[in-house]
Specification:
Blueprint lengths: L5 E5 L3 H13 L3 E5 L2 H11 L5 E5 L7 H11 L5 E5 L4 H9 L4 E4 L4 H12 L3
Parallel strand pairs: 1-2, 1-3, 3-4, 4-5
Helix pairs in contact: 2-3
């Protein structure tokens, strides 16, 4: 029996959560949602042995994605983190990679690009 892939999605926008849920449900991925970076950090701490990838919005209330990524990297330097941002400026993308994100995707997100990057980070076909 194959393991179900589990993705932690940190995004405070409900519409984005529905979008991700629809895509990942179709592909049989299990999803955990966080509304902000602090919640993502807490969910990760409680489920770190179960989570295979994190999709991290960089701009969220309470704790942003940059800070959450830094804290998660202290716990697990190897968990794949895919940054998502509405601001695809070089400085923002470089900052996301510098703090430990493995890759990034710019909003508006296209389903095929999201799945390709997710599968690449998870090393699946």
């Amino acid at each position: 029996m194959t393991k179900t892939i589990s993705i932690l999605i940190a995004d405070d926008e409900i519409i984005s959560q529905y979008f991700f849920q629809e895509i990942f449900d179709k592909n049989k991925f299990e999803i955990l949602f966080a509304q902000n970076g602090l919640e993502a950090l807490e969910i990760f701490k409680q489920n770190k042995d179960k989570i295979d990838l994190i999709l991290m919005d960089m701009e969220m209330p309470v704790m942003n994605g940059y800070e959450a990524t830094k804290e998660i990297r202290k716990i697990d330097p190897h968990i794949p983190i895919l940054a998502q941002t509405a601001h695809a400026y070089k400085e923002e993308l470089d900052k996301a990679l510098d703090i430990g994100c493995n890759d990034f995707i710019s909003k508006p997100i296209k389903e095929d690009e999201l799945l390709a990057k997710t599968k690449k980070l998870l090393k699946i076909q």
